[in-house]
Amino acid sequence: MIIAIDGPAGAGKSTIAKNIAKRLGFFYIDTGAMYRALALKAIQEKIDTQDTEKLIKMTAKTKLDLINSPGGLKVMLDEKDVTQQIRQPEVTKIVSDIAKIKEVRKIMLALQRQFGKRGNSVLDGRDIGTVVFPDADKKFYLDATVNERSRRRYKELIEAGQNLTLDEVKKDLLYRDKIDSTRQIAPLKKAEDAIYIDTTDMTIEQVTDKVLGYING
Ligand code: DC
Q1: How far, CA to CA in Å, does 145 sit from each of 48, 138, 190?
Q2: pLDDT tens sequence across 139-186
Q3: Are the C-beta atoms of residues 186 and 206 closer than 8 Å to each other?
Q4: Is any ligand 1 atom within 6 A of the Cβ of residue 91?
Q5: Does 37 sit in the ligand 1 pocket, CB within 6 Å?
Q6: Which residues neighbour 173 within 8 Å (Cβ) at sequence distance 6 or greater?
Q7: pTM, whole model, 2 decimals?
Q8: For the domain 2-212, what is the CATH code?
Q9: Which atom of ligand 1 sits closest to the CA of residue 132?
Q10: What are the domain boundaries of the chain?
Q11: Best mutation site among 75, 105, 180 for ligand 1, i.e. most ligand atoms within 8 A of its Cβ?
Q12: Nearest by Cα to 13 from 122, 170, 162
């Protein structure tokens, strides 16, 4: 069984996807983490975000894996655990520029489909219901107002010890939303058959229960 959860940054996708996977005993596949790992590698190798050719070559040579461990999802980049590093603001800043490259997406698409075949899975991202698994058993599109999404991201980052203002977080979020939803390949879009949930005034528990209700119903 495949459950697809798409939506913009800060809509609560990863929290909900993790909860659902835990409750159902499914694999959790964070597809954004895969693009983030590539962005981290580009920074480490000092590749310019505009150097498409180099980024494609780098991606083709990269080994990515997502491991569901008892302590949570582990993101492996060339056999190294980068779970924490991929959340750095420097990575967040450039990830959309890498995720818009057609050939990079092609490689990630194949890998995401492969991960999905490991067993029952919950995938979250931007194009899961539209492109990666158009035949997913259940599709959800989570959304919230830009102010609420910024507030959530800000809280998360502050709790993780990062030093950013709410305004900076909002600006970054709007920038990514724009690139993610206007790119030519697999833009962020609600699949026609996805269930739309506005999470602005909902708690995590309420959204989790609602999603589970649709899956079990
Ligand atoms: O969900 P996130 O913020 O960790 O995602 C990081 C970036 O990766 C996001 O700006 C868009 C991109 N992404 C994508 O293009 N397609 C996906 N399926 C998941 C993420």
Answers
A1: 32, 24, 16
A2: 999 999 999 999 999 998 899 888 899 999 999 999 999 999 999 999
A3: no
A4: no
A5: no
A6: 8, 9, 10, 146, 149, 150, 153
A7: 0.96
A8: 3.40.50.300
A9: 18
A10: 2-212
A11: 180
A12: 122
